[in-house]
UniProtKB/TrEMBL annotation:
Carboxymuconolactone decarboxylase-like domain ranges (all copies): 35-117
Pfam families: CMD
Entries under InterPro entries matching the protein: 4CMD/NDH-1_regulator, AhpD-like, CMD-like, Decarb_PcaC
Cross-referenced PANTHER family: 4-CARBOXYMUCONOLACTONE DECARBOXYLASE FAMILY PROTEIN, CARBOXYMUCONOLACTONE DECARBOXYLASE-LIKE DOMAIN-CONTAINING PROTEIN
Protein name, as recorded: Carboxymuconolactone decarboxylase family protein
Amino acid sequence: MTDRHEAGMQVRRTVLGSAHVDRAEAAKTAFDTPFQDLITESAWGNVWASDAISLRERSMLTLALLAATGNFEEIAMHVRATANTGATPEDVAQAFQHVAIYAGVPRANHALKIAKETYREMGVEL
């Protein structure tokens, strides 16, 4: 493994939690291992591992970008990750306010719905 892969795996565990990463690693097959290596090295080992901005800020950016581009399937995972990154429910709500203005109210509305449900499952009172 490369240094970038190792750094990516460390940050991935910090952000998503070891239980999540262990489940994802156990589910890997020869078919998707190259893809998993790509995202571990690129997304986690390059982008998320950079100290240019905080994990809190990265969480907010990631959630806003997922909502703005309509990639709703990963929003719950990244809302759960806020417990590890320091982004508060208020931070997430503010990120989705930006989505409403710059990418559309329906996308922000759907993202808020997912976030509310995820926070409820996490036992977070809003």
